[in-house]
Design brief:
single chain; alpha+beta; seven-stranded antiparallel β-sheet; 8 helices; 7 strands; binds zinc ion
Length: about 230
């Protein structure tokens, strides 16, 4: 069987979304890519999480042709593939309908950067796509969702802004791996809830100062990052 360890990693990321309470029923999916082989591993469509096994994961190429697997891939596969094709630095994608992040997506509102928790992971407001038009919905809907995300992120580093809210739908998140993407989905939900609560308390709460935003993002992610422990220590 191809990509055994990547299959296990993708299964684990999908289970992590459930464990974190970000996915109920089958409202979510995670995938990962082997850049070396040009192959994507994704959750199968509509299989119960408690019965899912690494062998159930579906392997496709970057055009969506099934390379290995007997089950149908998640119906959001074309969205994941559009992100892998456009963002060469990413290694994993996670999609959930987690409650607070989805509320912002349904409102079509970017999540403003109101505090350092947000800035530790997202360098600025988390953008929302424009609504898809009737033609984009009628044909290749999932692919067009991916294109809308890519257009919304134009000019930004996908690892500095690892999530986009799809209008009227829900967030898509990514990272250097499937585990990284699932982690971002978890943090996004917390940040979405914090922003909502902040604006309930104070509807004109000021965005984080640029200096503080940059300080928090760079200390975790910049070339001179110093947050946490050094690798190997
Ligand atoms: Zn969805």
């Amino acid at each position: 069987m191809k990509l055994q360890s990547l299959r296990e990693e993708v299964l684990e990321a999908n289970l992590e979304l459930v464990r974190r309470g970000l996915v109920i029923d089958t409202f979510g999916n995670a995938s990962a890519i082997s850049r070396k082989e040009g192959l994507v591993v994704i959750k199968p469509s509509g299989v119960a999480y408690d019965r899912m096994r690494p062998a159930d994961m579906v392997v496709t190429d970057l055009e969506g042709h099934i390379v290995e697997g007997t089950l149908r891939p998640s119906s959001d596969l074309p969205t994941h593939l559009a992100l892998y094709r456009a963002f060469e630095v990413i290694g994993g994608v996670a999609h959930t309908h987690s409650r607070s992040a989805t509320a912002w997506a349904q409102a079509g509102r970017p999540i403003p950067c109101l505090g350092t928790t947000h800035a530790d992971y997202f360098h600025g407001p988390i953008p929302a796509t424009p609504s898809l038009g009737p033609a984009e919905i009628a044909t290749d809907y999932e692919l067009n969702t991916g294109h809308a995300i890519v257009r919304t992120l134009a000019g930004k580093d996908p690892l500095a802004m690892p999530a986009v809210l799809v209008a009227s739908h829900a967030p898509f998140c990514w990272g250097s791996s499937a585990a990284g993407a699932a982690h971002i989905a978890w943090i996004l939900e917390e940040v979405a809830q914090m922003a909502y609560a902040t604006l309930v308390i104070h509807s004109n709460a000021a965005p984080l100062a640029d200096e503080l935003r940059d300080k928090h993002f760079q200390r975790k992610h910049g070339p001179a990052a110093y947050y946490g422990q050094k690798a190997g220590s």
